[in-house]
Design a protein that fits this description.
Elements lengths: L3 H53 L4 E8 L2 E7 L4 E7 L2 E6 H43 L1
Length: 140
């Protein structure tokens, strides 16, 4: 039969294992968020770079429009000084390219800030996780 001290030790070990499981789930969720933000940042960068190239061209040029699933439409752009921008809540507005590049740069900065914050959170979770693991051998 287990002594009271042994039962308390087992209880602490079970609590530590429970915290480890919770920390691992938090880490997975945070890493998934990081992946989403990173993909968004990449999308923003590509859009900005494409707009910067369009801005350099002063005449109508042939272009490919991605329709999705690896399907493209070959077309000729006639008006290259403005674009339509989704500004949220289903609202699309016409903006000049320079303003749109500025908006995208702002969004890139916000995404970069979010990535840094998530890296900090992941690091903190990892430190806490490792700390909890080190407590387990002491309890057994």
């Amino acid at each position: 039969m287990a002594t009271e001290a042994e039962m308390a030790e087992r209880q602490r070990a079970m609590e530590t294992l429970s915290r480890l499981k919770m920390l691992d789930e938090q880490r997975k969720v945070t890493q998934a968020k990081y992946g989403e933000i990173d993909a968004y940042f990449t999308e923003l960068t590509r859009a900005r770079e494409a707009l910067e190239e369009i801005q350099k061209q002063k005449q109508a040029t042939g272009t490919l429009i991605q329709l999705g699933a690896g399907v493209f439409l070959k077309t000729k752009t006639e008006k290259t000084d403005t674009v339509l921008v989704d500004v949220g809540v289903g609202t699309v507005v016409e903006k000049n390219i320079a303003d749109t590049i500025g908006l995208i740069k702002q969004r890139e900065q916000e995404a970069a800030d979010a990535r840094r914050a998530l890296i900090g959170e992941i690091t903190s979770l990892e430190v806490t996780y490792q700390d909890q693991i080190h407590k387990l051998p002491q309890q057994q």
